[in-house]
Amino acid sequence: xxxxxxxxxxxxxxxxxxxxxxxxxxxxxxxxxxxxxxxxxxxxxxxxxxxxxxxxxxxxxxxxxxxxxxxxxxxxxxxxxxxxxxxxxxxxxxxxxxxxxxxxxxxxxxxxxxxxxxxxxxxxxxxxxxxxxxxxxxxxxxxxxxxxxxxxxxxxxxxxxxxxxxxxxxxxxxxxxxxxxxxxxxxxxxxxxxxxxxxxxxxxxxxxxxxxxxxxxxxxxxxxxxxxxxxxxxxxxxxxxxxxxxxxxxxxxxxxxxxxxxxxxxxxxxxxxxxxxxxxxxxxxxxxxxxxxxxxxxxxxxxxxxxxxxxx
Length: 312
Fold this sequence. Notes:
Elements: H1 2-17, E1 23-28, H2 35-49, E2 54-59, H3 67-79, E3 84-87, H4 96-104, E4 109-112, E5 126-129, H5 132-147, E6 152-157, H6 163-179, E7 183-189, H7 194-207, E8 211-216, H8 219-231, E9 239-243, H9 247-255, E10 260-264, H10 266-281, E11 289-291, E12 294-298, H11 305-308
Parallel strand pairs: 1-2, 1-3, 3-4, 4-5, 5-11, 6-7, 6-8, 8-9, 9-10
Antiparallel strand pairs: 10-12
């Protein structure tokens, strides 16, 4: 990190020498077409409102699967000389080289939500995320509590190989294997498309009428899963758990379609992500990992302050 610190110090001296315009912090997420990422945007905006001398831009591809588009957005941010970048990488390998280029350009990068591959860990300054492995285990524990230890559980996942998916779904699966005799059906990958998840879940429910549980591992997947459960008339017949907390998922909890949803601190990711970049630019020391947490929201606690602070 020393080369980056020296370059940042030189930049600070140069800015102090003249009248510096507000510096841009680029927040780049997996897709802008999701309430989860729009809540990250709200958090980032809240951080910028309290910061003098900085502006913020927010962007992302049309879909999480458009990995090349996200790479291009980071390239463009580097080329226009942003002061710092907050990035939610859609692929742990594909975003690595461009983050490395930002490091070489003395632009600090804070990663949120999903990790980059280990080979690129020296190219960014901090990682802010739900501990997705711990969250996956928490969902698995709830599955066992509600569904028991025998039978079949389907996993409706999103994009294979994404850092958050590896931790969330992998640790859910491992926990069930170590603590129950539950048989895994899947995982099935929706590519974070609600309609795809709906169709996949419809097929899974049809092919496995004896399912005792089902897990939708991110927002669009869980929404599609919930709609398929309703259409199949299976609400209340199996334990359905989701991840993330938009209005559709909240309503599924209230209606008893979903037993519970594990909700990440998406607002905190945006707010703390921008604040961490600013701390770095101001010469401060930051933690290499900042856990933004998860809350298990069900019908009993959905109206509490703890739940309302993470729902969106």
